[in-house]
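Retro notes - structure team

What went well: the batch runner handled both jobs without manual restarts.
What didn't: labels got mixed up in the shared folder, which is why I'm recording both outputs here explicitly, each with its sequence directly above its tokens.

Job 1
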Amino acid sequence: MIGAKGLISLRKGISRGLQGWASELKFTFKILKRDRTGLVGLGIIVFFALMAAIGPEVYPLEMMPHPEDRFLPPSLEHPLGTDFAGRDTLAQIIHGSRSVMAVAFLTGLFVVLISIVLGISSGYIGGKFDMLMMRIVDVFLTIPSFPLLVIIAASVNRTLSPVEVALIIAAVEWAGLTRAIRSQVLSIREENYIESARCLGLGAFHIIFNEIFPSLKPYIAMNLCLTIVSAIYSQVGLYFLGVMPYTSVNWGTMLNIALYRQSGLLNRKVWPYLFSPVICVVLVQTGFILFLHTLEEIFNPRLRSEEA
């Protein structure tokens, strides 16, 4: 049982945490208000995230073929036209966004988690562990990532869930960020404040999570965005090439059908169906790239002190 003092302490801790989050959000909105480019980028990201989260529930997808409506041009009834079977293209874009965005964000999360654990451990511990980890990283960096990804994906003979696809992509893309984080840690651990923390007898856990990790947050956040963009390219590319088990709705599958089966570059009627997923991929990439310019300001302590 928690006593009265314990409850008061817990409430104070929660209150301080909420105040900290409120302060972070307030500062972030200040930066976004000043930097309209980052605000536009964040708006694009939020738009596609919401489309993936609630779009399929709002905009139904009918997979029943309607040959009489084959490759209709954009109209009020079909804003992006129809496909080779007379099915609504916009519905396929919306439903396909769920798997694309889910895989992208999960891949970014997996890559960052793996890289943080291995990169910080390798850089801080050093010695034989660091040497072993860097040899493993070198092996992964030597092998071209996308051909390796194609080989792994082609060996799978069943439809994969977004988590499984994300794990496959993360297993190929973790090495570069791991080496980069390890290099940052090697530099940070020689700083005077790290030496002071050691002299004070603070443990490795405290030094890593309270002294080293905060300095890595801007770098990790920016690489998270780049990893998400790379994961979108990788996933769409795998479905486009046809090496992943076929799924009914995916932007890469739409590209595969439009180009390989319907001669999309030669037939103008196919262009709305062909370029819809292409434009979506470009827009998502643009959103993350624009938002990257704002992340440095959000995490920069000098700017934070100036704003204060």
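Job 2
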Amino acid sequence: MSTRALVPLLALLVLTSTAAIRAAAAARSGLVATAASQRIQNRRADAQNLSRMRNARMVLRFRHLGLLVPVRTSTPWYYLHSIPANLRYLRPWTRLFLTRLGREFHARFGARLRVTGLIRTMNRQQRLEQINVNAADASGPERSSHLTGATVDISKRFMQPAHARWVRHVLTELRDQDVLYAIEEFHQPCFHVMVYRSYLDYVDRLTAG
């Protein structure tokens, strides 16, 4: 085999090795998705009485009631990527989590988080199912937690290894505090994070101390 022919093969081996290393790190941290992942998130959503968004009108109604809060397209700590204007909303505690994580990330690395997923409606989730075989269901016991507005996707696409290690460490610690549920995804490289309402109490304890 010629040297020229070896180049793409070597590049593929490097990528495969890197992916394997990252997957192993996620496994050690406990952030790997399991067959029960969607059910775990949905049980917590049910326990917190979180409604799932059926359509854009429902999103607006919840926004007017203060049950959802807007997320700015760009801040010094994070920016949104490819999220429709009518879906730039989160539960208040999830936006607080995103803001705090983004500030700490920026203070440490001088970079911003790239956010690729916020709230979704059942209609949008159904469309995602049609184009992405890895997308969660739009209904049923394994439906996506994005429907609740409590979940955010943070892209790993432009993260340096040190960035991803730090985010992984923070998410693992917060998961152990039982204030969120996090999965590190690799097909669509991101950290998928469902934040629990108890995160508000967690922040209150930190600020009170």
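One thing worth noting from job 2: The beta strands are 69-70, 78-80, 89-90, 113-117, 151-155, 180-185, 190-195.
We'll revisit the folder naming next retro.
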